Amino acid sequence: MPPVFHFVNSRGLKRSKLLKIIDEGESQTLDFKKTITHKFKIAKTLVSFANTRGGYILVGVMDDQQIIGVDPEEEKYSLLEASRMYCRPEVSIAFEEVEDKYGVVVLVALIEESNNKPHRAQDQHGNWNAYIRTNDKTVLASKMVLKTISSQSANRKPVTSLSKHERQLVEYLGSHERITLKESARLVNISERRARRDLVSLTQEGWVFSHELEKEDYYTLA
To answer: Exposed e or buried b for every residue in 159-182, given b needs 16+ CB within 10 A?
Structure first.
């Protein structure tokens, strides 16, 4: 599974740790931004982290992992304005600044998983939509996903309490974008009926999201 970062008492992030995080690449809990240019666009990322498992936004880092640095005060202002103006309810953001010996600064924006889901972001047309984080992408939440996150507790059962097959499914989704019922049955070598039961249980426990499609439903890591 990709790392899940927790931000309690996380002040004093060292550059060596930051470089290690950047080296792991974008993921469900990590997003790179060269700079904050469109507030309504970054609002989608903010609510997707808050609605899913929390995450880092590293401002001053290119998509190719190159560190270019930013003016941290200017970027903080843009992020806070995006939350205030384009997120409903507002998303809480904590900040850290990591500076190298040449004065190049990366702004680390920390967004924790929210206890006040779902959060919605306003787009350029004035519409308010909920978003979630799936692997390294911010995606629109379906009606079924929205129903799940509306009732979802931020305190999931620990992974150690899951069954062997449930853990296998969660671990698979940690490195793959999605899985269908048929694929999950083949993955853990069980019947589709039993696989469906495990997926329903994982959905109810807040570990996965269920997405409806006309051809075939699929599941993603929550």
So the answer is: eeebeebbbbbbebbeeeebbbbe
Alpha helices in the chain (DSSP H): 15-23, 39-51, 72-86, 143-151, 164-175, 181-188, 192-204
61 DSSP 8-state letter: B
More reliable by pLDDT, 55 or 175: 55
* pTM of the model as a whole: 0.74
Alpha-carbon distances of 196 from 27, 95, 186, 190, rounded to whole Å: 26, 41, 12, 10
| Cα–Cα dist 48/120, whole Å | 9
Residues 8-54: tens digit of each pLDDT: 333 456 778 888 889 989 998 999 999 999 999 999 999 999 999 89
What sign has the CA pseudo-torsion 158, 161, 166, 167? Answer: positive
> 169 near 187, Cβ under 8 Å?
yes
* Pairing between β-strand 30-33 and β-strand 55-59 as defined by DSSP bridges: parallel
Q: Are 12 and 108 within 8 A, CB to CB?
A: no
pLDDT tens digits for 161-217? 888 999 899 888 888 888 999 999 999 999 999 998 998 888 877 788 888 766 788
Measure the CA angle with vertex 31, ends 83 and 220; round to 5°: 95
Q: Tokens 């306003």 identify what position?
A: 122
82: exposed, middle or buried (C-beta count within 10 Å: 0-12, 13-18, 19+)? buried
